[in-house]
Design brief:
The chain is mostly beta strands. Helix content is 0%, strand content 23%. The chain has strands at 15-17, 24-25, 38-40, 47-48, 61-64, 70-71, 80-83, 102-104, 109-111, 117-119. The strands form 3 sheets. The chain has a 5-stranded parallel β-sheet with strand order 1-3-5-7-8, with no helix packed on it. The chain has a 3-stranded parallel β-sheet with strand order 2-4-6, with no helix packed on it. The protein has a two-stranded antiparallel sheet with strand order 9-10. A hairpin with a 5-residue loop joins strand 9 (109-111) and strand 10 (117-119).
């Protein structure tokens, strides 16, 4: 588990990749990291708590693995989120994504040859 607010307001953090054994990301863990662009979450991660990645204006995209059971309030406030599961769990907060966030479930995107998520199926749920 990463503790609440552990990496809050790190001015130079640009990239974060989870350890394969990580199960939970605490509240506000990466809150207000202005240069954070890339987040790689591991299969096996189960919890992303409230505002874990909030106020990261340069966050480009995040892939949330299907193993994630719960996502808290405004866990993300910017960027594009690709959710591996085809259905969002009812245990996810209804407001897990702030107003500026776009998100796509597993039946709407796939990885391209470079391993980057690409939207393929807009509006065909």
């Amino acid at each position: 588990r990463i503790c609440d607010y552990a990496f809050m307001e790190l001015e130079e953090l640009k990239y974060f990749e989870c350890n394969k054994n990580l199960i939970s990301i605490g509240k506000g863990t990466f809150l207000n990291n202005p240069k954070l662009q890339t987040v790689i979450l591991n299969e096996g991660l189960e919890y992303v708590n409230d505002r874990a990645f909030a106020e990261c204006p340069n966050l480009e995209y995040v892939v949330i693995p299907a193993s994630v059971k719960e996502v808290g309030f405004e866990a993300f406030t910017s960027g594009i989120i690709y959710i591996e599961a085809e259905i969002i769990s009812d245990k996810w907060d209804q407001n897990f994504a702030g107003k500026g966030v776009k998100f796509y479930t597993g039946n709407e995107w796939e990885y391209n040859e470079e391993g980057v998520p690409v939207v393929i199926n807009i509006g065909k749920k």
